[in-house]
From TrEMBL:
NCBIfam families: hmgA. InterPro entries: HgmA_C, HgmA_N, Homogentis_dOase, RmlC-like_jellyroll, RmlC_Cupin_sf. One of its GO terms (biological process) is L-phenylalanine catabolic process. It comes from Aliigemmobacter aestuarii. Homogentisate binds at Y364, H385. GO terms for cellular component: cytoplasm. This is Homogentisate 1,2-dioxygenase. The keyword Oxidoreductase applies. Its cofactor is Fe cation. Fe cation binds at H349, E355, H385. Keywords: Dioxygenase, Iron, Metal-binding, Oxidoreductase, Phenylalanine catabolism, Tyrosine catabolism.
Amino acid sequence: MNQQGTPRGMVRAVDTTGTVEGYMPGFGNDFETEALPGALPQGMNSPQKCNYGLYGEQLSGTAFTAPSHQNERTWCYRIRPSVKHTHRFEKIELPYWKSAPNVLPDVISLGQYRWDPVARTDAALTWLTGMRTMTTAGDVNTQVGMASHIYLVTESMVDDYFFSADSEILIVPQEGRLRFCTELGIIDLEPKEIAIIPRGLVYRVELIEGPARGFVCENYGQKFELPGRGPIGANCMANRRDFKTPVAAFEDREVPSTVTVKWCGQFHRTRIGHSPLDVVAWHGNYAPVKYDLRTYCPVGAILFDHPDPSIFTVLTAPSGVPGTANIDFVLFRERWMVAENTFRPPWYHKNIMSELMGNIYGQYDAKPQGFVPGGMSLHNMMLPHGPDRNAFEGASNADLKPEKLDNTMSFMFETRFPQHLTEFAAKEAPLQDDYIDCWLGLEKKFDGTPGVK
Ligand SMILES: [Fe+2]
């Protein structure tokens, strides 16, 4: 029996031998899993009576009529149907968790911004009360755009459950370890891994090792998928087998419980008398997943020049305009730099897309100082950015031998929509007032005469 709450060894997905207990490999597979033998109907979805007295129920993550290659749904066989997992709702306030549109008259989002890490705290904060929205983009009501958040978690949710009808949630831990007990199974998550919780899936977040801090991208739009590799071929970048979806696990616990629902940017609470994590068996392709960022195989320039950062895309959430993402999740990890006669760091740049970065660990090559683990930066739509003076001078004068960028892991949430700062990001979070001064020292070298300066 694989019931939730059973301790089990931590999963180390970068182990180079063996498969990973408790998880099934693949991205978007049609999985099937049962926590009790014979619980999953075979050959049909809706038998007249299900084994063990379970109720059959479908969770639709896409419209019924979505194209076959995008259609996602999961069949659940559960102790009670979901209609028993909510009752009357009351609205509640989670004042730090904002949704788009959240455009504030006294906040200037136009600019280049950088933040130090949001400080750890001894205050009691759960996954819900510890969520701090930094930016919002698009409109949650029309299911376009995103929000970026920092989470600070010091406490487990106890008999308290959550789902977001607004969004799928991409989690990027930076410190501490969390356990996501979901309707479809358990994901243990630690820094250097990411997880995706689908829209509508009920879960509870427990603190395994704290305090926990990390980044969240809330995707209001079409689901994340793997980017096409084009001429790169069938391998490298993020490989499907390295994504791990949990096996079925259920709770049969009758105790007063609450379920919080995020719906159209507002939070609602309902009270029930049992755990809603009661799915004994399931099959389908709409499921939570985790991925170890250390399995990301970067591909880059091997002779000269610096490719666009899209070469490091891990996941992309389409917007409906081909090639123009609602969100790209991009990873800057350890890699070799070998380009000849080349300015190797990221070039200076203005972009129709807006770029929000976070540092998971180490030092980022375009900014040797100031962008620290746990910190974030925002280079909004059409705002210039690029290496600071030290990075520019260092890279312009470096002896260009092969060099390993080591001890570095940063990421970017890049969206086609401008990102608006929340009041928290503008006034409460540790904003670096002098960030834009990092370009002050860049000198005019041009004097009208030819030659390398
Ligand atoms: Fe950029």
